[in-house]
């Protein structure tokens, strides 16, 4: 009995730098407007709006970096969860699958980027587990463990018949 488990987070340097830059912008605005007593910008926000915007963006940052794509493949099927957006993992049983394989894809051109996009769940990279259900629906789950996923899928190929 082979089991594949993976948990992925957004750890790309450019994403981290973007959030640091945006949070720094808001925090500097508070510093300038409250400590230096200089209005922040040509048309400054009221203090309450600046504080709420800063808190909101910090909370958004914490939410974003708490997101995790969890994937499990075992003898009962394939489970995937994009926590905390999905609080419970979704299961696709082997009997519901027509086909499953590891594929290379272009996140921008094929799905419009990373995250939950139409029928894809991705965090980073260009490798994913392509699922084709017997209903005709397609689903892509991103992975960073191409070889492990391939081996486990090959183990359970006969369960898809």
From TrEMBL:
Transmembrane segments: 12-35, 47-65
Name of the protein described by the UniProt record: Uncharacterized protein
Species per Swiss-Prot/TrEMBL record: Tenacibaculum finnmarkense genomovar finnmarkense
Keywords: Membrane, Transmembrane, Transmembrane helix
Lineage, opening ranks: Bacteria, Pseudomonadati, Bacteroidota, Flavobacteriia, Flavobacteriales
């Amino acid at each position: 009995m082979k089991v594949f488990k993976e948990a992925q987070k957004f750890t790309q340097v450019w994403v981290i730098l973007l959030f640091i830059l945006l949070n720094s912008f808001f925090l500097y605005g508070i510093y300038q407007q409250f400590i230096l007593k200089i209005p922040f910008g040509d048309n400054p926000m009221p203090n309450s709006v600046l504080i709420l915007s800063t808190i909101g963006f910090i909370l958004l940052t914490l939410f974003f970096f708490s997101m995790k794509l969890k994937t499990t493949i075992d003898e009962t099927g394939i489970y995937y969860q994009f926590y905390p957006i999905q609080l419970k993992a979704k299961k696709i049983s082997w009997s519901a699958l027509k086909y499953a394989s590891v594929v290379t894809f272009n996140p921008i051109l094929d799905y419009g980027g990373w995250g939950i996009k139409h029928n894809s769940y991705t965090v980073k990279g260009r490798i994913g587990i392509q699922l084709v259900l017997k209903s005709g629906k397609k689903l892509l789950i991103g992975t960073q463990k191409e070889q492990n996923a391939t081996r486990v899928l090959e183990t359970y190929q006969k369960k898809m018949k």
